[in-house]
C-alpha cells in the first residue's frame, strides 16, 4: 500500500483513498471506451450519464426537491460571491450579510461591488471567535437575501442552527461543510460550495438554487454569469469541468456507502471530538480559538501560548507524517481540517501527537 499522509489540509483537502483508487482504475480506460472520461465529448452519452447521475445522487442524499436546480459551475465559491448578487440584487434592494469571519468578509466585499449591502449581524468585535446569536440577526427592509457562511474555514466556527429568514431568501456558502451533516435544504434560497473541501477536487462549484430565484436575473447580465443559462442547459451550456464532476460522483457514492450524510455526520463528530478533547484536557496548554458553542466540526483552530512552540509543533508534526496543521496566515496558530474524507485514524494520531507534544513541552 502507498504511504498516505495524515492529511489535515484546509483545501484542496484529503479525498477518500477508495475514491482515488476507483478513479485510478478508470483513469486510462473509462468503462471500455478506450479513453478516459477527460478525453470524451461532454455531449457524449457517457458524460451525460455522469452529469445526470451526480445531480441525482446529490438530490437524493440531501433531500433536494424539484423546486431546486442543482448546477455544476466553474470559478470557485469566489466567483459565486459576485454572481449571486449580480443575479439577485436588484438596484432597489439590499443584500444582507451575517459577518462571521474571513470568507463572509470576502463575500460582502464582492456584494458591495454590485449593489447596496447591509450587515445583518457581526461577531467581528469578538475577533470572529463565535457565530452571532440567531436572535441578533436583523434583516433590513428591502432585503434581497441574507447571506451566511455556514462554516468559517479559517476561524473554525460553524452555524449550529440556521436562521429563519421568512420570505427573504437565505443564501449559504457551504464550501467547507457541505454534506458533512444533514441540512434542511428547504430553508435556503441558494447554497453554493467549491468542491475541493468536502466534495472532490477543485474545478467544480456546486450551486443549489430555488427555481424561482434562478429566473429573476437582469436581462443585461452576460450569458455565462446567469443562473438561468446553466439551469436551462443542465450545466452543459459550455464545456464543464468533466473530470471534477466525475470525481464528485465517486465521492457521493462513497458517502452513500458510509450510510449517507447522517452517518457521515456521526463519524465527523467522533473524529473532531478526539481533537477538541485533546485541547480541553490539556489544562490550558492548547487553547481553542472558537467559543465552544460555535466550534466547527470541520476546522479545529487552536493555539499554544508561544509562537515558538507553535512553530515547533508544526515542524515535529511534519516529521511524523502530519500535513497541513499550520493555521491560516490571517489568524495564525494551528488548524486541523477534518473534512469527510479525513480518517478517524488520522484524528486519533493527531490527538496522541498533541498529548505527547504537551508532555515534552508543557
Ligand atoms: C475555500 C472557501 C472559499 C473559496 O473557494 P474557492 O473555490 O477557492 O473560490 C469560499 N468560502 C469558504 C467558506 C471556503 O472555505
TrEMBL record:
Keyword Nucleus: no
Pathway: Amino-acid biosynthesis; L-serine biosynthesis; L-serine from 3-phospho-D-glycerate: step 2/3
Cofactor: pyridoxal 5'-phosphate
Catalytically driven reaction(s): O-phospho-L-serine + 2-oxoglutarate = 3-phosphooxypyruvate + L-glutamate; 4-(phosphooxy)-L-threonine + 2-oxoglutarate = (R)-3-hydroxy-2-oxo-4-phosphooxybutanoate + L-glutamate
Broadest EC class assigned to this enzyme: transferase
Single annotated GO MF: pyridoxal phosphate binding
Co-factor remark: Binds 1 pyridoxal phosphate per subunit.
All residue ranges annotated as the Aminotransferase class V domain in the record: 6-350
GO cellular component, one term: cytoplasm
Cellular localization per UniProt: Cytoplasm
Binding annotation for pyridoxal 5'-phosphate: 77-78, 103, 153, 173, 196, 238-239
SUPFAM superfamilies assigned: PLP-dependent transferases
GO biological process terms, semicolon-separated: L-serine biosynthetic process
Enzyme Commission number, as recorded: 2.6.1.52
Binding site for L-glutamate: 43
In-chain residues carrying the UniProt-annotated modification N6-(pyridoxal phosphate)lysine: 197
A UniProt-annotated Pfam family: Aminotran_5
Keyword terms, alphabetized: Amino-acid biosynthesis, Aminotransferase, Cytoplasm, Pyridoxal phosphate, Serine biosynthesis, Transferase
HAMAP family in UniProt: SerC_aminotrans_5
PANTHER family: PHOSPHOSERINE AMINOTRANSFERASE
Described function: Catalyzes the reversible conversion of 3-phosphohydroxypyruvate to phosphoserine and of 3-hydroxy-2-oxo-4-phosphonooxybutanoate to phosphohydroxythreonine.
Family the entry assigns: Belongs to the class-V pyridoxal-phosphate-dependent aminotransferase family. SerC subfamily.
Subunit structure, interactors included: Homodimer.
Name of the protein described by the UniProt record: Phosphoserine aminotransferase
Amino acid at each position: 500500500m502507498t504511504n498516505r499522509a495524515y492529511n489535515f489540509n484546509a483545501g484542496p483537502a484529503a479525498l477518500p483513498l477508495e475514491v482515488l483508487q476507483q478513479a485510478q482504475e478508470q483513469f486510462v480506460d473509462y468503462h471500455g471506451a478506450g479513453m478516459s472520461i477527460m478525453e470524451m465529448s461532454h455531449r457524449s452519452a457517457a458524460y451525460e450519464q455522469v452529469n445526470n447521475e451526480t445531480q441525482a445522487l446529490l438530490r437524493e442524499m440531501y433531500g433536494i426537491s424539484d423546486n431546486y436546480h442543482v448546477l455544476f459551475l466553474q470559478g470557485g465559491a469566489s466567483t459565486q460571491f459576485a454572481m449571486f448578487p449580480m443575479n439577485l440584487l436588484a438596484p432597489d434592494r439590499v443584500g444582507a450579510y451575517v459577518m462571521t469571519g474571513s470568507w463572509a468578509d470576502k463575500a460582502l466585499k464582492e456584494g458591495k461591488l454590485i449593489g447596496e449591502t447591509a450587515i445583518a449581524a457581526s461577531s467581528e468585535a469578538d475577533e470572529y471567535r463565535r457565530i452571532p446569536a440567531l436572535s441578533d440577526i436583523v434583516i433590513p427592509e428591502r432585503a434581497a437575501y441574507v447571506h451566511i457562511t455556514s462554516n468559517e474555514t479559517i476561524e473554525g466556527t460553524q452555524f449550529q442552527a440556521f436562521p429563519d429568514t421568512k420570505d427573504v431568501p437565505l443564501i449559504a456558502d457551504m464550501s467547507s461543510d457541505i454534506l458533512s451533516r444533514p441540512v434542511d435544504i428547504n430553508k435556503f434560497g441558494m447554497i453554493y460550495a467549491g468542491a475541493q473541501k468536502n466534495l472532490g477536487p477543485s474545478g467544480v462549484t456546486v450551486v443549489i438554487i430555488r427555481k424561482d430565484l434562478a429566473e429573476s436575473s437582469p436581462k443585461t447580465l452576460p450569458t455565462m454569469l446567469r443562473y438561468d443559462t446553466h439551469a436551462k442547459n443542465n450545466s452543459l451550456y459550455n464545456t464543464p469541468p468533466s473530470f471534477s464532476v466525475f470525481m464528485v460522483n465517486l465521492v457521493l457514492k462513497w458517502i452513500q456507502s458510509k450510510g449517507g450524510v447522517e452517518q457521515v455526520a456521526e463519524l465527523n463528530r467522533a473524529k473532531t471530538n478526539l481533537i477538541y478533547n485533546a485541547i480541553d484536557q490539556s489544562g490550558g496548554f492548547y487553547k481553542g480559538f472558537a467559543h465552544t458553542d460555535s466550534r466547527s466540526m470541520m476546522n479545529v483552530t487552536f493555539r499554544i501560548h508561544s509562537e515558538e512552540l507553535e512553530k515547533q509543533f508544526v515542524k515535529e508534526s511534519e516529521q511524523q507524517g502530519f500535513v497541513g496543521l499550520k493555521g491560516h496566515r490571517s489568524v495564525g496558530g494551528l488548524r486541523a481540517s477534518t473534512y469527510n474524507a479525513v480518517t478517524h485514524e488520522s484524528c486519533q494520531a493527531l490527538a496522541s501527537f498533541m498529548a505527547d507534544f504537551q508532555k515534552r513541552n508543557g
